[in-house]
Each structure stands twice: as C-alpha cells, then as structure tokens.
Amino acid sequence: MRRKIVAGNWKMNMTPSQAVALAKELIPLVESENVDVVFCVPAIDIVPVVEAVKGTKIAVGAENMYFEDKGAFTGEISAPMLVDAGVKYVILGHSERREYFKEDDVLLNKKVKKAFEAGLTPILCCGETLEQRELGVTLDFIRLQLKSDLAGVTAKQAASMVIAYEPIWAIGTGKTATSDQAEEVCGAIRKLICELYDEATAEAIRIQYGGSVNGGNAAELFAKPDIDGGLVGGASLKADFGKIVNY
Ligand code: PGA
C-alpha cells in the first residue's frame, strides 16, 4: 500500500514572518498519522519554516532548484544548499516554471537527476493545456514530458519519487478535473512507469493530482486507486489545507 502524500505549494506567497505564522497555524491541523505532509515554500522561507516544523512529521520542500552544485549562476539555489537547510522534497517542472521561466524537459531532466544525486525527493509536475485536452493529445503530451524528464533515472530512484499530474486548465481556476478525468491520467502515468521500468516501480511511485484541490473535493479524488494525494496551491495557504490532509 502506498502512503498518501499531500504537499502544499505556497508559490510566491508569504514573507518569512508570514510563513512562520502560517506554518504554526497549520501544524496542529495537519498532523496526520496516515499521510505524508510537505510544505513547499519560497526559498527565502525555507530556513525559518524548517525551524517552525521541527519536532513534527511535516517535511519542507523547495519550489525549484538549479542543476549545478555551485558557481557563477547568479540568483540560483543548488540542491546541496537545499539539503543543508533541511529540505527533503523539491517541486520540479511546475507548469508556471515551464511557462513563465521557459523551463524545458532537457533542463528538467538535469534537475531531476541532480535532485536524486543530492538526496532530495523530486515532485515532478506534468500536465496538459486545455487546447491539448480538446485536441485529444493529453496522454501523448504527458508521455513526452515524463519520458524526457526521467531519462537516465534508475528504477530505484523512480520508485522513491513523486509525480504530480496537474492539468494546466485546473490550476488556480477553481475548475477541478473530475475524479474520473484525474484517475484516467494518473492511471496512464502508472502504466507508463511500468513500461519504462517495471511493475514494482509502478506500484511504488506516488502520483498526486493537482489543480484546485480543496477540502471539499480531496476525499473523492484521493479515493481513486491511482491518486496518491495532492499538490495543493491556493488551499495550502488556509486552514482548508487541514481538511485536505485529514480528507
Ligand atoms: P491550485 O494550484 O491548487 O491553486 O490550483 C495547484 C498547483 O499549482 O500546484
């Protein structure tokens, strides 16, 4: 049985002092025995939030990182820096990074491999636009993303990671994919992992759904056999996040 994993993606919200206040507000609401909980926070909030969650089971994640260990890459943050600060997870390939910061699958493949090398667990995002869904190429597109992003990743590494299926048309729009739509793609992703690796890897890898997850729809989504939790944006900044974790 895979353990569910619910990760909050705080995006570019919360100053360091606001982040500590939010973490402290959420901690008593999200302590669950049965679910892994992650706060993915802006880089500048990592150190104080790691401190705030000390002594709880909540892990801290980053929202991005660079693939080089160090050097002349002004403004970037490396995997070893994240690890040293106490980070366990890193979101890679979020659609906002792909769109606004022009991150492509060749770059993301380097980041995924570096995350593993450093001992971080990637939360690798994939997902189609509304146009792609209407053209009927959702699964083709996601196959292309994941095959490229996972090139050179071993079965053992893949088994330990998290993939987040986030249809772009459902992010921040209040328009959630139906649980059947989400399950169809998450199931197809698991089949792809079986094809790329083997059955055991496909059974072990955790696949989240993301896109307007909230306290009211989490239970139905997470009841689906191939949905192992959620990547949560807007609702992760409110007490509603507790309802999602305790779905
Ligand atoms: P949302 O964001 O929950 O606000 O739709 C999800 C995400 O972008 O990870």
Could you spell the SSE succession in H and E letters? Answer: EHEHEHEHHEHHHEHHEHEH
Beta-strand content estimate: 15-25%
Report how far the terminal alpha carbons are from each other. Answer: 18 Å
| Helix content estimate | 40-55%
Q: How many whole angstroms does the radius of gyration measure? A: 17 Å
Give the CATH superfamily.
Answer: Aldolase class I
Tally the beta strands: 8
Q: CATH topology, which one?
A: TIM Barrel
Give the C-level CATH assignment. Alpha Beta
The distinct bound ligands, ions and cofactors come out as:
2-phosphoglycolic acid
Mean pLDDT: 97
Number of domains: 1
Major sheet characteristics: 8 strands, parallel, barrel
Order of strands across the biggest sheet? 1-2-3-4-5-6-7-8
Query: Tell me, what's the shape?
Result: globular
Computed structural class: alpha/beta
Low-confidence stretches: none
Instruction: Report the CATH architecture.
Output: Alpha-Beta Barrel
Number of helices in the DSSP assignment:
12
Nutshell version of this structure?
The chain is an alpha/beta fold and 247 residues long. The chain is built from twelve helices and eight strands. It has helices at 16-30, 46-52, 79-84, 95-100, 105-118, 130-135, 138-149, 155-160, 179-196, 199-204, 218-222, 240-245, and strands at residues 4-9, 35-41, 59-62, 89-92, 121-126, 162-165, 206-210, 229-232.
Can you tell me about this structure?
The protein has one domain: TIM Barrel. Strand 7, helix 11 and strand 8 form a beta-alpha-beta unit. The protein is globular. It starts with a strand and ends with a helix. With 247 residues, the chain is an alpha/beta fold. The protein has an eight-stranded parallel β-barrel with strand order 1-2-3-4-5-6-7-8, surrounded by five helices. The structure holds 2-phosphoglycolic acid. 2-phosphoglycolic acid binds next to strand 8.
